[in-house]
Amino acid sequence: MKAPAFLAALLILFALISAGCGGTAAQPDGETGEKLAYVYRSGDTGNLMLTTTAGGVGENLLQWQGHGERFSFTNDGRFFTIALWKVEPAAGQLISRHRFFIAATDGSSAWHIPGNVDLLTFSPDSTRVAYITMPDNGPNEVRVMDIVSGVAKTLASGTGLLNPVWVDDHTLVYTELNTTPFASRSEGGIIYKVDTASGESTRLTSGERLFSTYGPPVSYARKDLVLTERGELSNLWSLDLGSGKLKQITNNTQFHFRASYLGLSNRILFEQQKYRDDRMSSELCVMPDDGSDFKMLTTNFFFDGLNSYSLESGRIAFQRTKDSGVTSIWTIDADGSGASMVTEAETGWLGDPNFAPVSGWKGDNPLSMEVAGSNAGEPLTVRISNASGESVDAVLRAFPGMELMLPDVAGGGEVEAAGGVHGAPAAVWRLKLEPGETREISLLPALLPTVAIPTETALLVTLAVEGAPPRMYWQQFE
Prior knowledge:
By secondary structure, the chain is mostly beta strands.
């Protein structure tokens, strides 16, 4: 490795390690002051990092053991969700179990979503979340859940239901695969729309052509939707959701995927690769839905994808993976100008960049948080430190999964019992840390006595400081 690259790698590694669940301050805001979050995985540890579009590693918003992906914020920035998963033994084989939660971005509330679910997407008005169930066998479902009440209902049940996409605040579109269940998400099927209030479902495509949908991290209220045709060719189509009329946009031999409209414009952002199975070489492209003015935003033969779009600045954030495996996070304007690398990691994995529209995050969090403990029935220690030169008021909250209880807590401060209310923590500590002070709080998570085979045993801990991103830690107990 050349000296400059080696030095850069050391600096990034030092920053990530020193951040822990506390972290170093993010770099000064760019011209827009816009914040960007992304996933960093190293070994068996995952981190959700928060930085700015000006660049830099940033600070740690969430840490967990295992893997994580597909996270996004609500449009109003009040909530975020992320898939956290581990490979678990089941029925004599190893199965990847997804565990989702929704958390308020001020650390005040959180909801564990039970079961093995996937593909969560927030409604445009930020009040509900849609997702699919992933049973070990049998049909799966498309569901929608009210965030605050936690009330969920099934909108569709079938074989291989995928990719729920909000098209307005009361309508979802999804794909029913035309192959065996979950054979491949790159396969196509029939497109349906469903009214989330009445449950009335409408078939939008005939099945003569096979299509798939893509749910971008941000939901927009639109009257049309981009579809990708699956088959020997891979063309883009626009679907009018009112009339059901299909309009073909592209006609070539390139493989297109992750296609969606850029906000409320008629421009489409998509990833293009020359060969269907060449997943490590894709370029970002933009074009209007009349097929004119095709533009490649990247042309480097690396993987450029996993993108998100900002309504505030009009910039696109994306992941880049080089042939060497080195990953980085970039932003670029929708016309292909202003490409800028936010951060890069020589080891580990960076991905899923999402713009963070959180108005309450005015400054950096001055506190660090470390959590130790891995088994239910054994003490879990939360260590909070104030390295700043001023006293800091903070609130620590614990959100156990539905099969856990917290019968014993200790550590001083004001302790509140708050369990039993949907979305509320089981315990709350109101703390004041003086400059240089470290406080330890002990929890004893335990299984409910009625649980025979535990599955919903996650615990989320949040440490909130007013006007700053909270520190969060998620633990799935064995």
